[in-house]
Amino acid sequence: MSKIKIMDEILANKIAAGEVVERCASVVKELVENSIDAKSSEIKIELKEAGTSLIKVTDNGIGMDKEDAILSFNRHATSKIKDESDLYNINTLGFRGEALASIASVSNVILKTSQGDVGTLVNIKGGKIVKVENTEARKGTIFEVTELFYNTPARLKHLKSLYTELSSITDYVNKIALSHPEIRFTLINNGNTILKTDGTNNLLKTISSIYGMDVARKMLEINNEDDDYIINGYISLPEVNRAGRNHIITLVNGRVVRNQELNKTINDSYHSYKPDNRYPIVIINIELDPSLVDVNIHPTKMDIKFSKLEELLILIKKTIVNKLNKQTLIPIIEQPINDFNEPIVEEKAIEHKETKEELIEEKLPKIEKPKYEEITLDFNEIKEEETKYEERLPLLYPVGLVHGTYIICQNEIGMYLIDQHAAKERVNYELFLEKLSNPVKDKIPLLLPLTIELSNNEYIILKENFDFLNSMGFDIEEFGINSIIIKSHPIWLTKGFEDLQIKKIIEAVIHKEKNFDLAKFNDHLSATLACKASIKANTNLSINEMEELINDLRKCHNPFNCPHGRPTIITFTKYELEKMFKRSGFESLK
Ligand code: ZN
Ligand code: ZN
Question: How many Å lie between the centroid of ligand 2 and the Cα of residue 237?
Answer without folding.
Answer: 19
